[in-house]
Structure formats: C-alpha cells, structure tokens
C-alpha cells in the first residue's frame, strides 16, 4: 500500500485532469509540467478546495475522499498544511501570533521549538510580517503550515515570487525539511532546477494527464518523455565532495561509478551534493579520448536511444554504474557511432554543475 494515494478525474471545459498516483510516505514529490497542465488544480483537489467528479484520496491509510463511498472531508477536516506562492501571513499579528493561529483548532500540542529551529526563525518571533525579508516570510509561512502538525504538506510554487538571491537563501531550508520531516510533501514548480535540487520523486503532468511518476533520478533520465518548454533534459547524480584543487578552483565529487571535477563552490570534503548534468553537455566517444579539453570522461553502456524533439537530434540514455545519464547528440552522430542498447561507450562530460 502506498502512503499517499491520489486518484482524480475532473472536467473543466476543454480541460480534463486525470491522475492516478501512488506516492511515497516521506520526502518531496515534485509536481512538474508546463503552464496549464493542471498542477495547481491537482493540489486544490487534494486539499478539498476543488471538487473532482471522481476522487479517491488516502493519506497514510486514512481516506479523505472517496467518491465511490460518498465520502468527502471538508478542507478544514483534512490535516494538511498549504503554502502558496505569496506568503499569506496576517499583518496584524507578529510571527508568534501567526504561528499560534490555527494550532488550537487543529489540537496541535507538540512544542514549536524544533520547528522554529528547523526553519531558522527562532529570532523572528516578535517581528511583524512587514519587518521580514521575502525569504524569511516564506520560511514563516512554511512554519505556520507545519505548526498545526499536518499529515501532508502542499507547496504551490513557494519560491516563484522570490528573486534568485532569496531563492538560493531558502533552498537549504527546504532541503532540511525534505530530510527531516516524516510526512509527504507535494511541491508544485515550474523550475527544473528546483526539481533537481529538492525532489525525491517526480510527477510530470501534461495537459491534465500524468506522463510520468517515479523516483527522481530514473525519471529525469527517461528518453521517452515530452520536453518541458524551456527546460533542457538532464540527469541528476547523488555525489560526495572528495577533493579540491585550489590552484584551478576545482573540486572533485564521487558518485557510485566515478569521479567528476566541478567548479569549486567551497563545500567541505565529505558533503553530500546533487550534481546536474544536462544532456547537451555530454558527448559520446567509442574510445577514451587521449588529448581533450574535457576533464570528465566516464565509461558507460548505452541503454536507450530515442528521437529528441527536432529530427536532427537524438537523446541517448547511458548507464554508468547504477547511475543514469542523458546525452543529446545529433541523430547523424548516433547513426555513425552505431549507438544501440548494450554498446560500450565513453561519455565526455563537458560541464557538470552542482544544483544551486
Ligand atoms: N477557476 C478556473 N476556472 C476555469 N478554468 C480554470 C480555472 N483555474 C484554472 N483553469 C484551467 O484549468 C487548467 C489547469 O490549470 P492549473 O492552474 O491547474 O494549471 P497549472 O499547471 O497549475 O498552471 P500554472 O503553472 O500556469 O500555474 C488550465 O487549462 C486553466 O486554464
């Protein structure tokens, strides 16, 4: 049995949302897809703010909605937290007042201190919302959503109204939530960077249909999924910082099957990182190159080859140990190299970056 079951069918004019998802009990599930694909509608249905013609929503064994049984809990009886794009805090209350709001009705009695520490807002309790930066406001909004001890946290583009600097500031806090909270989080986003950095599980929506739902790394490396406009396909590797070359400002990370040099961003040795390698930054050779400007060369096996949008392009899935990579090359090159599943090749990684 899955910890979070979401089955929905809802028609709205030409738009039809049709989802049947079994999602993990903890961690961040990113709901990703183009504008208008139904991401917000899906979240609103889970929250009971929108009524689907057919719905079955089960959280940790408890049915919140089951249209076949005539069951539908109203929103206020669903133990969930909801975080919106704009932090909707009460201006007339300070942070402490905002956090206290709703706790009584939810019978939430656990102390707030661990939550304040988790989001780094212990020092902000007596400030009013207008005395907070955008990033602090959003951290308080997340804390308020969690203060009622929900069984599910919904986040609808929580970083979309923040500038790049504020987004970078808040991402580490979201990573801590992902690693420490024991409830599922559904996280709607437009941003491939946020997906790569935060998600454990990825749901890809297209025109109301679920095109993919699966663990992040495997799903990002699929060659059969539609391109999301404005997003370059690419894979994510879980790695650890193992060495640095201060002379050239580089650091080396180890993933399960090899090593990569990346621009040094100062993280300490031993630190766990996610590395994003875009498909356009990988080229493929049949033999290890002897003299090349490319420092990162990995032995791989071709797993799949598929058309990639434009007829001149091919997308190649490569297995490197247990990890998967994606390469975008020309269809002509794929033909000349006779790339087919099982072929041993060398992936030259032109550039890889930490997800920041
Ligand atoms: N209140 C509404 N009344 C009628 N149609 C709506 C309403 N809200 C959304 N829609 C339509 O429902 C579909 C799904 O919208 P939804 O907001 O869920 O998409 P989304 O993936 O969250 O988009 P975005 O990323 O732009 O926020 C779209 O076709 C949209 O035009």
UniProtKB/TrEMBL annotation:
<dbReference type="InterPro" id="IPR011868">
    <property type="entry name" value="ModC_ABC_ATP-bd"/>
</dbReference>
<keyword id="KW-0500">Molybdenum</keyword>
<dbReference type="InterPro" id="IPR003439">
    <property type="entry name" value="ABC_transporter-like_ATP-bd"/>
</dbReference>
<dbReference type="GO" id="GO:0016887">
    <property type="term" value="F:ATP hydrolysis activity"/>
</dbReference>
<dbReference type="GO" id="GO:0140359">
    <property type="term" value="F:ABC-type transporter activity"/>
</dbReference>
<dbReference type="InterPro" id="IPR004606">
    <property type="entry name" value="Mop_domain"/>
</dbReference>
<dbReference type="InterPro" id="IPR027417">
    <property type="entry name" value="P-loop_NTPase"/>
</dbReference>
<keyword id="KW-1278">Translocase</keyword>
<dbReference type="InterPro" id="IPR008995">
    <property type="entry name" value="Mo/tungstate-bd_C_term_dom"/>
</dbReference>
<feature type="domain" description="ABC transporter">
    <location>
        <begin position="1"/>
        <end position="232"/>
    </location>
</feature>
<keyword id="KW-0813">Transport</keyword>
<dbReference type="GO" id="GO:0016020">
    <property type="term" value="C:membrane"/>
</dbReference>
<keyword id="KW-0472">Membrane</keyword>
<keyword id="KW-0547">Nucleotide-binding</keyword>
<dbReference type="Pfam" id="PF03459">
    <property type="entry name" value="TOBE"/>
</dbReference>
<keyword id="KW-1003">Cell membrane</keyword>
<dbReference type="Pfam" id="PF00005">
    <property type="entry name" value="ABC_tran"/>
</dbReference>
<dbReference type="InterPro" id="IPR050334">
    <property type="entry name" value="Molybdenum_import_ModC"/>
</dbReference>
<protein>
    <submittedName>
        <fullName>Molybdenum ABC transporter ATP-binding protein</fullName>
    </submittedName>
</protein>
<dbReference type="GO" id="GO:0005524">
    <property type="term" value="F:ATP binding"/>
</dbReference>
<dbReference type="GO" id="GO:0015098">
    <property type="term" value="F:molybdate ion transmembrane transporter activity"/>
</dbReference>
<dbReference type="InterPro" id="IPR005116">
    <property type="entry name" value="Transp-assoc_OB_typ1"/>
</dbReference>
<dbReference type="InterPro" id="IPR017871">
    <property type="entry name" value="ABC_transporter-like_CS"/>
</dbReference>
<keyword id="KW-0067">ATP-binding</keyword>
<feature type="domain" description="Mop">
    <location>
        <begin position="291"/>
        <end position="356"/>
    </location>
</feature>
<dbReference type="InterPro" id="IPR003593">
    <property type="entry name" value="AAA+_ATPase"/>
</dbReference>
<keyword id="KW-0997">Cell inner membrane</keyword>
């Amino acid at each position: 049995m899955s910890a979070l079951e979401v089955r929905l069918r809802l028609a709205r004019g030409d738009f039809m949302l049709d989802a049947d998802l079994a999602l993990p009990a903890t961690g961040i599930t990113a709901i990703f897809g183009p504008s208008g694909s139904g991401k917000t509608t899906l979240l609103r249905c889970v929250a009971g703010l929108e009524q689907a013609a057919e719905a079955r929503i089960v959280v940790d064994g408890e049915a919140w909605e089951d249209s076949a049984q005539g069951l539908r809990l109203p929103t206020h009886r669903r133990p969930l937290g909801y975080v919106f794009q704009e932090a909707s805090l009460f201006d007339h209350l300070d942070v402490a007042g905002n956090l206290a709001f709703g706790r009584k009705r939810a019978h939430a009695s656990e102390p707030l201190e661990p939550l304040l520490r988790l989001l780094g807002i212990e020092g902000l309790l007596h400030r009013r919302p207008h005395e907070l930066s955008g990033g602090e406001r959003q951290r308080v909004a997340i804390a308020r959503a969690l203060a009622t001890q929900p069984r599910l946290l919904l986040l609808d583009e929580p970083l979309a109204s923040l500038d790049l600097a504020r987004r970078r500031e808040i991402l580490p806090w979201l990573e801590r939530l992902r690693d420490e909270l024991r409830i599922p989080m559904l996280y709607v986003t437009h941003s491939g960077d946020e997906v790569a950095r935060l998600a454990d599980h990825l749901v890809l929506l297209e025109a109301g249909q679920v095109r993919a739902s699966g663990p992040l790394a495997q799903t990002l490396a699929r060659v059969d999924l539609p391109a999301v406009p404005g997003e370059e396909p690419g894979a994510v590797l879980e790695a650890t910082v193992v060495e640095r070359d201060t002379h050239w400002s580089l650091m080396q990370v180890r993933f399960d099957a090899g090593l990569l040099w990346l621009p040094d961003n100062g993280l300490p040795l031993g630190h766990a990182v996610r590395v994003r390698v875009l498909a356009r930054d990988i080229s493929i050779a049949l033999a290890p190159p002897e003299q090349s400007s490319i420092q990162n060369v990995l032995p791989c096996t071709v797993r799949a080859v598929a058309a990639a949008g434009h007829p001149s392009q091919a997308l190649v899935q490569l297995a490197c140990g247990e990890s998967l990579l994606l390469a975008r090359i020309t269809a002509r090159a794929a033909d000349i190299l006779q790339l087919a599943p099982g072929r041993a090749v060398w992936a030259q990684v032109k550039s890889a970056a930490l997800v920041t």
